[in-house]
Design brief:
heterodimer; A: alpha/beta; Aspartate Aminotransferase, domain 2; Aspartate Aminotransferase, domain 1; seven-stranded mixed β-sheet; globular; B: Aspartate Aminotransferase, domain 1; 3 domains; binds pyridoxal-5'-phosphate; PyrdxlP-dep_Trfase_major (chain B); Probable glycine dehydrogenase (decarboxylating) subunit 1 (chain B); EC 1.4.4.2 (chain B); oxidoreductase (chain B)
């Protein structure tokens, strides 16, 4: 058990130094009543105590630099180290957000150039980098839906999402004030066209979709889907979580999407940071450009200076206090320059090769509901293990921890029972995939021959299975021992 | 440069094991009309060395707060960041992990967030804090949504002394909802109490207040709270975390939700992000709150451990009924904030706040002695940011001061069109007497000139 930093505290201990205050000023009478006599009760530790504490905590984490992390839908690829160095250059990290345009020409040039690449990659016409994550991009998109239809004087109050959609899609629709209509997937794991036709009418603002979908299957009928939505006057939103499958191969703009978000923290190698920060730029087709949040990056009329443009006519306003997670964008840009768009195409090819290779090698050992070509990920099921030996998917996931790999995303998408959603990403080598296959096969055989070992897993982790019910029953959300 | 490790032999081997001859066959399921075929648009990659050079060149075209002496704030501040912060957040164990979905191998992240939650609660005087929102402005927006859900009312009372840029984000978040924004006038740099009394009634979901406000003035939270007519109305305070190192806690003054921009807690300016929205509130509202929350529990052998809890509020379980759509948050930035708060500790945060206060007041006194410069709000208390009224064209003054090597502050007219000649100046612990004295003498010279 690692002590809490508060338990290391010893009153009077310090880990900081500051220069002596070189002005001689006292608190004036106006502020006196507002001052708290007691300083905030923060930890009091030495610098060494502090470093040991955080290093010890760090050793308890699994992470991409330690081993394979095939968390479906999250694209846990390797994060190139050079990105980290670049984002820390003073010329990026020490810029005040209210700097004048003339002081940030390099930064604006970067955003402008990155936008050019993203336009080519997606087939969209204009981007904003303001959204701070995928769901924030979705939110920006739903507000554009809202304002667009308000301006057209159309009263549309519903959004369609497939039952395979990520939770952020319906949650976003609600935050836009829309009612959510969930439509069933067909037996191929794709949008059911009849269900879509039935649901789609002039009260529906549009469809939120990811392609390939969360089963890792490319929506073959995407053009027909777009037509059905557009024919009724709706808009199509592309959840870019799965762009890692199709870069340079198929573009959301050509598929018929009107708004797309990208996850720079997934597809473009910016690290996930234990939960963030991300970056979720959105791109739109020409007819929606004027709805983007302000400002956007522009070249001035002479074409040699860059500026921030606030003059969008129908802008939804601002979605971030400043300009988004620019420090994350810097990493994604560096990555894009390293690989080039050609390299990104290869990324998608290798991501899909890896996924199909794993799927093919594991489908005998685990039930595969949709046995067909997949893109960058696929979904297995632990339902046979559950039925035969009452070994649940959760148990399988926990057992994987004992073998030094991170489990896939589990119990999502909800349309597959006991789902194991596996996304190896392109950065895993064949050796690493073969190792993963060995582990999964071993667990499948343990589930048959020695189910208790699996059910009681993990055995080798810093803590064993944790009591989540207790955490809910007796909520302890902060350290109370002041 | 590429990061896929496959040799061409391996590619062939893997393909043939699948019964394919070429990579293209992996994409057979994509209809022709949806294919991208214009290879000529795809540019080439380049080496690490070349990219380093390119990025260095781009970065050098930017002017930083090290090229200037910075007196600019307005929500983002040039503060000292102890070395510990970057050393900890540079550890791949923190930055290459993700959301702690598997608690057995994520205790580092989980215990850290529990500690972070504790520090934020102690800073704000609240019961519960979440694991972060995208930034201060979006945290404020989520607080408004939460207040509407708790109170089941839709009127939002907003003083004009709240940062208009951040309010703009709130309004965007609430597009399509039935929220009704009611503005309260500003009087002498703070909320106009008479107007507040007029605007407040039993239908108000939330009263928002920035602490200190967008002019740097410390609003009297207690007096504002006293004007509430309904118990259901939520008091949402957006507080500067460094100011909380000195000032009374919003939680002790009647706040129900306290949010803020956490950039000042050890996070570099980075042109506005990644920052950190901190979010804290009273316990009884936990089920309506947005974002991830970590709780303490034990493993099956009785060992202390931490897990994500109250997940039934979140989008991955609740879908359209979730309290928010947030998924990825600002995780690593909370590590920076915790390391910052732990490095400074109890005494250090107080000292940073104290030095900022003293230096700001020193500069205020010196500047307002100059002919042509007035105190904009003379009888109001401020913390480390203040407004002066300068009898000159501020754009020209700013231009000249920048040439002299200073970022002199923010021209308030951009946010408040009715405010002429007002300059908002921020002073952090980083500024020295020498820098301030020369700043004063340069302004003096320019105003004379
Ligand atoms: C399919 C899908 N959509 C949306 C999101 C949300 O993205 P973010 O976490 O960046 O907000 C995710 C994230 O896991 C996802 O997998």
């Amino acid at each position: 058990m690692t002590e809490l930093i508060f338990e290391l505290t010893s009153p009077g201990r310090k880990a900081y130094t500051l220069p002596d205050c070189d002005v001689d000023v006292d608190y004036d009478d106006k502020i006196k009543d507002f001052i708290d006599e007691e300083p905030v009760n923060l930890p009091e530790v030495s610098e060494q105590d502090l470093m040991r504490h955080y290093v010890e905590l760090s050793t308890l984490n699994f992470h991409v630099d330690k081993g394979m992390y095939p968390l479906g839908s999250c694209t846990m690829k390797y994060n190139p180290k050079i990105n980290e160095d670049i984002a820390r250059l003073d010329g990026f990290s020490d810029i005040h957000p209210y700097s004048a345009d003339e002081d940030i020409q390099g930064l604006l040039e970067m955003l402008f150039d990155f936008e050019k690449d993203l336009k080519i990659l997606t087939g969209m016409d204009k981007f904003t980098f303001q959204p701070a994550a995928g769901a924030h991009g979705e939110l920006t998109g739903i507000k554009i839906f809202r304002k667009y239809f308000d301006n057209k004087g159309e009263d549309r109050d519903k959004i369609i999402v497939p039952d395979s959609a990520h939770g952020t899609n319906p949650a976003t629709a609600s935050m836009g004030g829309f009612e959510v209509i969930t439509i069933k997937s067909n037996d191929k794991g794709c949008v059911d066209l009849d269900a879509l036709r039935d649901a789609m009418d002039e009260t529906v603002a549009g469809l939120y979709l990811t392609n390939p979908n969360t089963l890792g299957i490319f929506e073959e009928d995407i053009l027909e889907i777009a037509k059905i939505v557009h024919d009724e006057g709706g808009l199509l939103y592309y959840d870019g979580a799965n762009l890692n499958a199709t870069m340079g191969i198929s573009r959301p703009g050509d598929m018929g999407f009107d708004i797309v978000h990208l996850n720079l923290h997934k597809t473009f190698s910016a690290p996930h940071g234990g939960g963030g920060p991300g970056s979720g730029p959105i791109g739109v087709k020409d007819f929606l450009t004027q709805y983007l949040p302000v400002p956007v990056v522009k070249k001035d009329d002479n074409g040699n200076k860059y500026k921030l443009d606030y003059s969008l006519e129908n802008t939804i306003g601002k979605i971030h206090g400043f300009f988004g997670n620019v420090g994350v964008v810097v990493k994604a840009y560096a990555y894009t320059k390293l690989l080039g768009l050609k390299g990104l195409k290869k990324v998608s090819e290798m991501a899909c090769l890896n996924a199909n290779y794993l799927k093919d090698n594991l489908k005998k050992d685990y039930y595969l509901k949709f046995n067909r070509l997949c893109k960058h990920e696929f979904v297995l099921s632990g339902k046979n293990q559950k039925a035969e030996n009452s070994v649940k998917t959760l148990d399988i996931a926990k057992r994987m921890l004992d073998f030094g790999v991170h489990p896939p995303t589990v119990y999502f998408p909800q349309i597959v029972d006991e789902a194991l959603m596996i996304e190896p990403t392109e950065t895993e080598s064949k050796q690493s995939l073969d190792n993963f296959i060995r582990i999964m096969k071993k667990i499948a055989s343990e589930a048959k021959n020695n189910p208790e070992t699996v059910k009681k897993a993990p055995h080798t982790t810093p803590v064993k299975r944790l009591n989540e019910a207790k955490a809910m029953r007796n909520p302890d959300l902060k350290y109370e021992n002041e | 440069m590429a990061y896929y490790p496959h040799t061409s032999e391996e590619i062939e081997e893997m393909l043939s094991s699948l019964g394919y001859e070429s990579i293209e066959e992996l994409f057979e399921d994509i209809p022709k009309e949806a294919r991208f075929n214009d290879e000529s648009l795809l540019n080439e990659g380049t080496s690490e060395l070349e990219v380093s050079k390119l990025m260095k060149e781009l970065s050098e075209k930017n002017k930083t707060v090290d090229d200037y002496i910075c007196f600019m704030g307005g929500g983002a501040y040039d503060r000292y960041i102890p070395s510990t912060v970057d050393h900890v957040i540079s550890r791949p164990e923190f930055y290459t992990a993700y959301t702690p979905y598997q608690p057995e191998v994520s205790q580092g992240t989980l215990q850290h967030i529990y500690e972070y939650q504790t520090m934020i609660c102690r800073l704000t005087g609240m019961d519960v804090a979440n694991a972060s929102m995208y930034d201060g402005a979006s945290a404020l927006a989520e607080a408004v949504i939460m207040a509407m859900n708790v109170s089941r009312k839709n009127k939002i009372v907003v003083p004009k002394s709240l940062n208009p840029y951040w309010l703009r984000v709130v309004k965007t978040y609430l597009l399509g909802s039935d929220a009704e924004f009611v503005m309260v006038e500003e009087k002498n740099g703070e909320i106009d109490y008479c107007d507040l009394e007029d605007k407040i009634d039993d239908d108000v979901a939330a009263v928002l207040t920035q602490y200190p406000n967008s002019f740097g003035i410390v609003e009297n939270l207690k007096e504002i709270k006293d004007k509430f007519t309904s118990k259901k109305t939520m008091f949402v305070v957006m507080a500067d975390p460094i100011a909380l190192g000195l000032l009374k806690k919003p939680g002790d003054l009647g706040a129900d939700i306290v949010v803020g921009e956490g950039q000042q807690l050890g996070i570099p300016l980075s042109f506005g992000g990644p920052y950190l929205g901190y979010f804290a509130f009273r316990k009884k509202y936990v089920r309506k709150s947005p974002g991830r929350i970590i709780g303490k529990t034990e493993d099956k052998e009785g060992k202390r451990g931490f897990v994500m809890t109250y997940q039934t509020r979140e989008q991955h379980i609740r879908r359209e009924k979730a309290t928010s759509n947030i998924c990825t948050n600002q995780g690593l930035m909370t590590v920076a904030a915790s390391v910052y708060m732990s490095t400074l500790g109890k005494q250090g945060l107080r000292e940073v706040a104290e030095q900022s206060y003293k230096k700001a007041h020193y500069l205020f006194n010196e500047l307002t002695r100059i002919d042509g410069i007035k105190k904009a709000y003379p009888d109001k208390p401020f913390f480390d940011e203040f407004v002066i009224e300068v009898n000159t064209d501020l754009n020209k003054l700013k231009y000249k001061m920048k040439k002299e090597g200073y970022l002199p502050g923010i021209i308030l007219k951009h946010q408040y069109p009715e405010k002429d000649n007002q300059l908002l100046i921020a002073v952090t612990e980083k500024r020295t007497k020498e820098e301030m004295d020369s700043f004063v003498s340069k302004i003096k010279t320019i105003l004379k000139g």
